[in-house]
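Hello forum,

I keep getting stuck at the same step: I have a sequence, I want structure tokens, and every attempt I make locally crashes halfway through. Rather than fight my setup again tonight, could one of you with a working pipeline run this one for me? It's a single chain of 683 residues.
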Amino acid sequence: MAIPLQALLKNMQDNPATSGSRYDEQRLAAELQQREDNTGWRLFGGVDTGQYRDLEGSGLQKYNGFGGKIGLRYPLLGAMQARRAAMIDSQIALDQARYSTELTHAEQQQQLRQTYIDWWQQNAMAQWCSVYQPLASAEQALVAKRSQEQQLRRSEHLWVEQRWRKLTGVCSNVVQQDTRLRQQLEYFYGSIIPTDAKPITEELPAQLAQLTSWLSMLEQHPALKTQNTETQHLEPLTRTRWTDRIEADFSVSQRYDGRDGISGSGGGTVAAITFEVPLASLSGSSRANSAQARYVAAQHRTEDTRYRLKHVLNQTLLQYQQHLDALKERRLQLEYTQQLVMEQKARLKIDNQEGFLGLRLAQMEQAEIAQALISDWHEAWSVLAQLQVLANEALPTSSTDGLRWDSLQESQKPKEIESSLITETTQPAAPLSAWSTAAYVWDSNALLDQAQQSAQIESLMQAGFNHVYLGFNATQVSTLKTLNPQITRLIRRLKQHGFTVDLLLGDPQWLLEGQRNDLLQLIDMFAAYPFDNLHLDLEVEQLGWPVPKSRLQDWLQTLEAASQRSPWPVTLVSHHRWFAAEQRFSDVCIPCELPKLNMSRVTLMLYSTEQDSVIERVTLILNAWPELQFNLAQSVEPTLPKENSWSGSTLAELKKINTHLRNQLKDSGLAGIAWQDWAQYPR
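Reply #2:
Ran it on my machine without issues. Output:
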């Protein structure tokens, strides 16, 4: 299951560092509320009791008394300014805490991005190992054998072994590294990553915008906003007045008094203004303004932070472009090395011993560059991830072009790599010329799947196939533009492994005049692909039995239209009855008409497990139509009767059948055998 990076970022939960920062915000928000309360009215009060001595007209009066008061007080002048300054300090601290949380959250996102990128690199290296480890083993075994036979110096043998051992050393801990990175990713993500999850590569922009396009984003960086908020909040405190030195307040209170032995109570309402001021502040000399100095200091820190961020951004943009250039250069190096490997193989018989070592060196160079390509992509993507801290959405670019990793997949699964495993000491005898062993591939999904493609091609080769009839379902046809790179790449890879690749189309409805144009439109849609032939499966029997003459005429007309429209030679598959010798005397002779349509190759469907009967009937057809070239189709489909299908046979048994039919019929003119179909063929 593929899991994109953006999905992880979207659903990321706070880690302990981010959660702790959010609780700091709550604490500072509570402190700010307390400071705000101090700038308004305050309730005060008190009670007292004691022995009192008052002088009155009648003399000294002694008594025990008690009393109390309650009132409201409001700060004025310097007292209010001090409380507002304290509130601003709290506001600055709260805003800075919020931006600190943003920064911590951004750092968590960056750590998640980087871990994801590291995880991707590990997966890419695992794929590299799956391709090159078998080659390394085969190469080491080959040079060891050569060394034992004294056809290779021991120093050369050890040199090749050491180079491959160094290259494949990364493959020894692939599983452990994957486990470690998954655990790290789960920590930053805050949840479990499915065990079958795989990373998806993101496209790298081909050209990022210039520095000026990033400056507006730079202003939103949490580090710069932290400095800006202090400057903005301190600005009002820089406007000082002489009254700020006077601490004053206004109060309104109610007094209640009582005496022992006297009923009732006395009291009164009092309004008062109180103040205090240091005597030294009353002098006329000017005094330094601490708020002004703090404000200027904050401005300088803001400017310094802006410069540092701008410098780092500029350096990062340059680094990204350098990594991107290195990546493109590495891709070219790999293509050149692949070409070198192919040329070395072609000259192997000519150059002998020197060519043998040259091929070994070229293959090691190819493996090393393919490994370096993964590291180069990792480096470029890592630098891009640093830039994505600034941009929550799309990065500013000066071009819509991008570099996609899937366009380099062929570089990591190099051309001819599987055939490299077949060394000259283990090569089979040269195949018989002009003998085709074809597989009908109606379901091409597995072959188009990059993850399965190499294994599928290897299975086809091991089964002895050298010809593929490649089919596509309705869904694939509807998304043909999207599949274009995969189809082209698949055809190229198959041909590099020696396969003939034909486009397989089949629907009996196309025989009808009203639907014939559907076939022609399909041919037009596939016209740009480098197929070798167009193979048509148009079974006239599927429209009903018996088959009238008019339907045979429809068949010929459809073949004629396809032959005229197709950019490739057209071949067909048909039931053998239409090519029996007696057809030469029928009213509508299909084999007689095919050469007139520029068609000469036919695959005969003669499904039978009675090999002697098959050989006898095919021989008669071959002798009856020497102007045509025939292949024989056999089936392993489990839905057919047992006498018509080889279903249940092992791969070894089918190879024996292939060999027997070839030995019996090739000299009579049979060009090959085709199997229906690959999905049911034993591996």
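The CA atoms of residues 447 and 638 lie 22 Å apart. If your local run keeps crashing, start a new thread with the error log.
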